[in-house]
Amino acid sequence: MAKKPAYRAGRDQAATAENVELLTGQRGDRLDKAVTFRELAALGLSTLRPGAGGVHVPGKNPDLFPPGQMEFPHAPVNVIANGAFHTVLVEWDPPQYRGHAHAEIWRAESDNQASASLVGTSSANLFSDAIGKGATFYYWVRFINGKDDKGPFQGMQGVKAETSRDVQDILDELQGKIEESHLAQTLLGPIEQVPQLQLDIAILKPKVAAIEDKIPSIEQELAGLDERQKVAQELLDDAQQQLGMSSIEIGLVQDRLNAKLDKYKGDFDSFRDAAFVVDPENGSITMDAVNAVRYELHTSITEVHQQIDAVAGQISSKADNVTVDGQGSRITEAEQRINGLDASLSQTVTRGEFTGEQQRVTQIGQELDATKGELTQKATKQEVDAQGVRLANAESKLTAHTDELSSQAQRLDGLAAQVTLGDATLQANITELARVTAESDQVTAQRVSGLEVRAGTSEAKIQALEEIIEDDGGITAGRFDTITAELELQRGLDDDNASAAIDGALAVDERDRETRKAFGSIRTEQRVILTEQQAQAQRTIDIDVKFEAKDAATQARISSVEKVASDADSAMAQQIQQVTANYQQGDQQLQGQITAESVARADAVQALGSQINTVSAVAGSKNKTFFQATAPGSGMGTGDLWFDTASNNRPYRYSGTAWIATDDPRIASNAAAVQLQSQAIADLQNGAQAMWTAKASAGQITAGIGLIANSDGTSQVAISASQVFVFNPNSSTPMAPLFAIDNGQAVIAEAIIRKATIQIIQSEKITADYVKAGVSISTPLINGGQIDMGNAFLSGGAAGFGKGGPYSGWGWGWYTMIYADGSIYTNRLRAEGGYVKNMTMNNCTIEQDCVVKGTVYAERIVGDVYVARDYVCSTNGRQVGPINVCTIKVNQPVGFARTLTIPGLAGLVGCSVTAEEPGSGTLTRGNWTEMLVEVLMDGAVVKSFTVRVSVSATSNPSSGPVTRENEIGPFVGDITIPANREPTVVVRIRRSAGDGWVRSDSTQSGRVVMFKQGGSLS
């Protein structure tokens, strides 16, 4: 019995020194001396190999292993690397060769195997590498056997592993990305200017930006409507001035009547008179004729006058009649003036009726002026009585004009009706002007029409202006329509005018002292502009109503602008719509507004689609309220409010001369807005981008959510809010948050996370299927649970070793599995000796000879023992072929090659010859043929040979003609059936030369034999 080492117990200095002396052989029994690696290597019991950091690792001496027990290492399989915060855990499948010693782990900063260095070895199936936080490396693994043979790496490409970065570093980087994000900046920015929408996209190309600069805002377009309305009104005013006076000077007509009566004063009977005067000096002829009739209560005077003036080139004709009777006095006049010098013709007919109660005059005239190129027609009727004055007028004027540079034609029509009753005047007018002009460099067609009615201070108008201009710059075609109406509101709630006057005098509100009105208008402008550089079309619509009630004033307005433009480089379509409602009471104003803008642009390198919808409301403000990024420069009054959208809606008050910032929080708190923006950009240089944002603001508090996707593979979802809540409205507690962000912290009630990186976990309870530690696990006690060692797993009294095998457990397959009932399943059992009893073996391979001392019972043996089957040939008549003589099917694949022998006949090959009767002597004739025999395996030829048949016949005079035939059957012989195959074998024959045939029938049969290759007979 060996003596135990005399080592001294204890950890004090004396015990340590004594034990060191024993191990180094300086004292005690020399048999207790420790053996060094160097001594083991010198004795040939071990080998030394360098490890990481210059440390030598002992290994098995391959010379100590019998031959055949040491295999060359194969490449590692399923190499994976998982990074934690500080360490990387490298894992691989167990080696599948004999004589494994250890594995080498190599590492590099890039995926380049040549630059990798050895970082460690492991006899297990995993390796832990401490590389620190935020590091990235590539790993390679190879196996080493006991003979120090180095196997191949798992591949040329390394396995990448990353350790997690410090959480604070990640948060800092995310903050930087948020600060740089165009989406985040959009959400943090104030809501876009509501009355004057503008798209601020920093990445737009200069060309697209140039197009945008050409697009006026909706306020500019509405101001343009004002200008067009002003132009239309000026044209109508000018046309009415050209038409001249629409009324009749009734006093002048009555004066002419009285003058006619005064001319024939005194008592006279009826008489007739005629005068004919010729003046040789001035070449004039004057003719007068008078017919006067008078009887009791009735006087009628008819006078005809005509003058011919050769010097003036003029003919004047006039006929009139004056009648006085009991019904009153009447005058009728017909006058015509023809002027040959200035090529003019003037015709006028007048009828006047005068009584003590009423005056009525009707006048119709026409003027033709070839010098001016004018034709004027006019019909007017006017009545005056105790009820008032009534006037009706219709006038038309045609003008044509040309000069050395231009030509112009114009038609002017006017209709007017007017009734005056006391202080009230009711008036209706229709005016239409049509004009065409052609100049050396421009042609213009223009038409303007206006319908207008007035009743006191109330009025309504319908105006239309159509215009087409073509010049060297291009074509402009436009149409402007406006409908306006204004009604003075009566004080219906007042008892009488006196009380209304008293209330107005005592009123505090200025509106109560002023006349209140209701106003409505619809204005539409359509315009098409074509030039050599651009085509453009636009439509602007403005609908506006106002109502001044006794206690408050309200206003509603809908404005829209639609515009399309296209040139050689780009195309643009834009639509802006704005809906506004105002309520004003005293010095307090409430305003609601909805604005929608849609823009689409495309040029040679970029396409853009954008849509912005904004909803805003302001309560409690005074006077007007502006939402825009720059200070309003027009349309403001003292006390108006401006929210600076470029400074987070900071409020300003207009003092009458300047905008003064106000810090009253109550002002801004009453302003709220919501804005939705959708935008898509496709750029050949910068790629594509799509963005959607929703923003809301109440005073100086804002919130928003946005989405952005870029063609470079990046996308973002950003939320700007002080609090975020996610809840389930269909749960029993719908207001309980499932996910929330409050005070900078995320709160999650329940979560399912596939993968998470957490730097510090503080938990009351952790339930996990697997826990993997890169460095260590420290715990005072492990109760139950599972232990996962990468390539081994323990749980519930069962253990699995070597992943990837056929035995299942915990959702994996294992090469060796020990179940809780003690059953062991393995396909990696290696036993150098032992005793086995009552064992059933399935699919067992015996590598070496086996001595069976008992009886072997076998249902089937596949191997050297042959298999034989009879076959029968198919029936084929005599022919040249090819024919399939027989077919043989191999039914069972095995893991080794076999030999198939076809010893019998496989068809017949033959030919014939005839020797005709000779005249004398003998005659010999011969014939032959060759046939090609092919053996096909699954359609591919694996063996072929040629069969030759010959025949001869001899005849003499006494025998007559002689015919001979000869047939032989080919023997196929052996063919090889490859391992793991169950092919179909076909024997095929066809004639290849000579004159003969091939045939087969069922009388030809044989036996086919198949056996393992390598068998032998003696």
TrEMBL record:
The keyword Coiled coil applies. Keywords: Coiled coil. Residues 208-242 form a coiled coil. Residues 673-766 form the Tip attachment protein J central straight fiber domain. It comes from the Bacteria. The keyword Coiled coil applies. InterPro entries: GpJ_CSF (IPR015406), Viral_Tip_Attach_Protein (IPR053171). It holds the Pfam family Phage_Tail_Tip. PANTHER family: FELS-1 PROPHAGE HOST SPECIFICITY PROTEIN-RELATED (PTHR36251), GIFSY-2 PROPHAGE HOST SPECIFICITY PROTEIN J, PHAGE LAMBDA (PTHR36251:SF2). This is Tip attachment protein J central straight fiber domain-containing protein.
